[in-house]
Each structure stands twice: as C-alpha cells, then as structure tokens.
Amino acid sequence: MQVFRYSGPEFDPYGDGTTERRSAEGTWPAPVATRPLSAVVALPGSKSLTNRELVLSALADAPSILRTPLHSRDSALMIEALSALGCRVAELPSDNRFGADLELTPGELTGSTSIDTGLAGTVMRFLPPIAALATGPVAFDGDAGARRRPMRTTIDSLRALGVDVEDDGRGTLPFRVYGTGRVRGGELSIDASASSQFVSGLLLAAARFDEGLVLRHTGETLPSLPHIEMTIDALRARGVSVHSPEVGVWVVEPGPIAGREVRIEPDLSNAAPFLAAAVVAGGTVEVPHWPAETTQVGADLARLLPAFGARVETRGDSLVVDGGEGLVGGRELPGVDLDLSHGGELAPALVALAALASGPSRITGIAHLRGHETDRLAALATELNRLGGRVTELDDGLALEPAPLHGGVWSSYEDHRMATAGAIVGLAVEDVEIDDIGTTSKTLPEFPELWRRDLLGLDAAPLDPLSLLL
C-alpha cells in the first residue's frame, strides 16, 4: 500500500502523445468530425460523488475505501486538504484505467495549516465547516478566479454557528477559520440561491456538530437540487439520520458517520460533451456503466438530447445516443426551449448544440452559472458571438438565433466546461482552437485523449503517468 501522492497523466495538449506547441498561441486545434461516430467512451468517477465521499471518509469513525474514484485537480486538492487536516489517504492496487482506489483513515482534525482550494467549489465550500471542527486556525485561498466566486453564505453561516472567521469583510477568499475542535450546531437559516454547495457543505459536517443541524433555505430559488439529494443519499448510506420535513428545510441528527466501501459512479456530467458529439457528428456514442438510478444531474441527458433530434436508449449497463446522420451529415438541428434549473452544469454542452441549430433557442434557469468557475453566461455568449453567433444574455439564461459560425480562438476562462463546449463547436466548425484545453484537468485530465482517440478514432499515444495537476 502506498501513501497517496497524486500522479495524473502528463498534459497532452493535442491528445496524440506530443507536447510541442502547434501555434504561436499554444492553442489546441479542435478536431473536426469527418464521418459518423461509432464510439464507446468509458469515463472516470464522478467529481461530485468523489469529493463528498472523501469528506465523509475523513469525518467517519472507521476507515473507508473508495473504488474507482476520480483523479483530477479538484479531487487532488480535496485529498491534499483533508490530509493537511489529519486524514491519512493511501492508494490501493486497482485495474481502473483512470487511477488507483483509495483508502482513507480518519484522524484527529488539526488546524494550524492552509488549504489551497484551486477553483474547486466543493473544496472552498465543503471544507470550512470541517475546519471549524479542527483545533487551530485554517487559512483558505485559491486561484485568482476562486476569489471571484461567492463565499459569503459559508462565512456568515459559520459565524452564526459561533465560529470565528476572519475575511476582512470581503465575503470571498482568502479567509481564515479559527477552529476550536467543536461546533454547537442547532438551527440556522441561510440564502443558498447562489449555489447548492452552501447547503451540502453544512449538511456533510452537521452530524459532527454537538446538536446536529436544522438548516433552512430562505432564498426564492435553490439551484441544482439533485446535488443536495446526492449529499443526503451519501449521508444516509453512512448511517446518518437526515430528513427534509418540508421543501428547503433539512434536519441532521448528531451522531457517528460510518466508514464504508463505496464504488464511485462514472461522472455523467462529464459525459455531456461526448454524448452531444453524436448529435453533431452523427452515428452513436456509448457510455458504459451508466447507473440505473442516480442523483447525478448528468442523467438528465437521456431526456434532454432527444430535444435535438437524437435517439437515446439503454443497452445493458450502457447509455447510447444515436445522432442519425448528424449535423455534419446534413441533418438540421432543431432549436430548443430548455429549463436547466435542475442541472445547470449541463448548460455549456447544450448551449454549444443550440448554437449549431437551425432554429432559435432559449436555455433558462441558469442565472447561478454566473458564479461558477467563470460567469458562464457571459463567457458562452462572448465566445459564440466571436465566432459569428447571435447570442443574447437573459436574466436567467441565454437566447440564441441561428447564425453560421466560423473558426477562431475559443477562450476557456480557466473553466473546464467552457473548454469542452468549444470542442463540441469544433466538431462542426473548422479552425476552432481552444486556448487552454489543460483546464479540463479540473475534472477530466484525460479529455484530449478521450476526445481524439476514444471518440473520434484519431491516432493518440498513451499519456505518460507524470504529474500535471499539482
């Protein structure tokens, strides 16, 4: 057994085993689809599930084993942070193509350390309540982009629970949590309109509070409810008593958190660009090990992609999307009217499809995406319009009018889903170049290889197992 040291693939910017820059700007030329697909694309574990299970494993009363976890920048940052707080993480042998299984042994939570959140919302919002349970100060900071992400709800929540937090009034990173080893808990009201992660972060730690937690959401909207259901399912699987007596209210009873062995589902949101590719290129894309039941919002792809004319079916444990002849083969994509308040993280991929449609589209329910890795609404509108699109920002989404797109540089804004959205557009539009495909390392370091070789059947050499992310 080896103590965990993340060893992800060396960044292969072109997905073919070479690392030289192909242009003066160092951009990644998005491959154009030239024939219908017949692809099987296996994906690594869910980021959302991996980071929830990592946190619960660190708070548990016995060791846990995570099978097929995600190995990415976000999960590596979570592991580094939990290790700094006193949890021991070790690698276990595995035949998983995407990395080792993990064994986590909880220890006494100790502060007097610092945590790098990177751009990971789960790290910056899940770990401050854990730091409050540690003894000693814990400093939080991250990438420059992380300092723009809303954090006031987390900071104010901890203060309302009696925790000392120092942020100089910013309501954003950087800040410092002064843990005393215990949190009283009790009743708490918050406005989590900006992110469901504010709710999940408190629920994950609440069983360790002296009085548990009665949490009430006071805002008018609450995005991404499936992510809260995911948190509740993970807690219940570890023996925690948690229930929701009414919409927007959650009750967690104090008590132990059990260690357990858990197999992490594939990341269904990361499946979005690959399944969308079938709509553009035509042919079929199959994602194996698709769960029959799940709280992941990526499961909504099965009902959303048919709006673009695709056929979706399950074959055994796989989800298969059939795009017919596809846009590249001459089929026009219909415009759509979609409310994505249930799963906003799917929006970049679906907006990319809508930009290629022959009719107008409206994609709404996603105002909260302005507070993600970047302002995704502004970023998508800017990049599509730069390539000739006609995209207008709405209060809670985007309106798209049909327009022919042309090539150009697509900026990723240090946002993994912006980068993959550009790759979707590039399937149908020549000369699209992604300025920073490496940002996909946040949740899917293997994206260039999977896109070129597994999806499109282009030559690609295996990636070397050298560190990219840390």
How does this model look, in words?
By secondary structure, the protein is of the alpha/beta class. The protein has two domains: 10-45 and 268-455, Enolpyruvate transferase domain (UDP-n-acetylglucosamine1-carboxyvinyl-transferase, Chain, Alpha-beta prism), CATH 3.65.10.10; 47-165 and 182-253, Enolpyruvate transferase domain (UDP-n-acetylglucosamine1-carboxyvinyl-transferase, Chain), CATH 3.65.10.10. It has twelve helices and 24 strands. The strands form six sheets. It has a five-stranded mixed β-sheet. Strands 3-16-18-17 form a four-stranded mixed β-sheet, with helices on one face. The protein has a four-stranded mixed β-sheet with strand order 7-8-10-9. Helix 9 links the parallel strand 19 and strand 20.
The CATH architecture of the largest domain would be Alpha-beta prism
- Category from helices, strands and their pairing: alpha/beta
Low-confidence stretches: 1-25, 461-470
Strand arrangement across the biggest beta sheet: 1-5-6-4-15
DSSP helical segment count? 12
β-sheet strand percentage: 15-25%
Say how many strands there are: 24
Helix content bin: 25-40%
- Write down the overall mean pLDDT: 92
Gyration radius over CA: 22 Å
Q: Give the biggest beta sheet.
A: 5 strands, mixed
The fourth-level CATH homologous superfamily of the largest domain is Enolpyruvate transferase domain
CATH class of the largest domain: Alpha Beta
N- to C-terminal distance:
22 Å
Q: Into how many domains do the coordinates divide?
A: 2
